[in-house]
Amino acid sequence: MARALIAALGAGGHRVDVASRFTSRDGKGDPERQAELIAAAEAEVDRVTDALRDSGFAAWITYHSYYKAPDLIGPAVCARLGLPYLLIEATRARKRLTGPWAQFAARAEAACDAANTIFHLTERDGEALLRDRPDRQRVVHLRPFLPQAELPPVPSRGPDAPVLCAGMMRPGDKFESYRLIAQTLALIPTGTPVEVAGDGPARPQVEALLGDRARFLGALSAEEMAAAYARAALFLWPGVNEAFGMVYLEAQAAGLPVVAQDRPGVREVLEPGNYPAVDAGAAGLARHVNALLADPTARAAQGAAAVRHIREYHLIGSAVTTLNSELSRFVGAPT
Fold first, then answer.
1. Model pTM?
2. Which InterPro entries match (predicted)?
3. Which residue, 30, 194, 264, 274, could crosslink 214 as a Cys pair with Cβ 3.0–4.6 Å?
């Protein structure tokens, strides 16, 4: 998503430079580590301020500041240099202001408070941002998008096209999606071909879950992933606690019907339709998979609707319009 944002800003006529490669993330909730990173960030603020002084930059944009990885650089640099400060996909989590991430959660809140504008990618994030925003701050909805202006023709698919699943193989929510997939595959015809794209530290556990029901493709390049979408019949990914999921955009752009649970965030990037409830579990997912596999006409219709949805709402042109409309408040006309 960060690379897509840089592409959109460039397509909108703006020059984009990476001001700092400082990494603030604490994934374990270690207060000592957070204190060390906060202290280390002070030197980076000095360095970046000196580097950007008289540079001619018109605004600072930070992507994805949150309680595990707050922006420890941007607010201070902008305060020193008088630059507008904008955030994209920043989140507020005030329940984290106590507990193991308290220091970082406070910094994430402070970054949100300092921003002139915050772009949110999902309505769920937008609710807290709007509720807690300072009076002067603007909160703008930026739909998740693919970094392309057009979509290629939808390929024709053969009668033996596989069910495609794709996701990182790691413990936690991703593994729970794979667990649901394993339960779903037990409820669809055993001869159905299934392909799984992805890799990660939990791959042995995922392979043990799915067994010989799936062909494992490993980590794929963008071109290889496009080929996997092109030969598939449908895309199956439950989406346990996904923020939104770029794979859903990619699959729909390739003309694939998507089978996913009706979850916040996920539903915001899917072509409007009837998706199984979370409470329906694997049985609900399997009903949708089986119905689509049994009806090529319905499968093609849903895939075509998905392409129209992506073309209208989730390509780079829409993002450029949203970004430039807001940036025009702070920077001159792009060159």
1. 0.89
2. Glycosyltransferase_grp1
3. 194
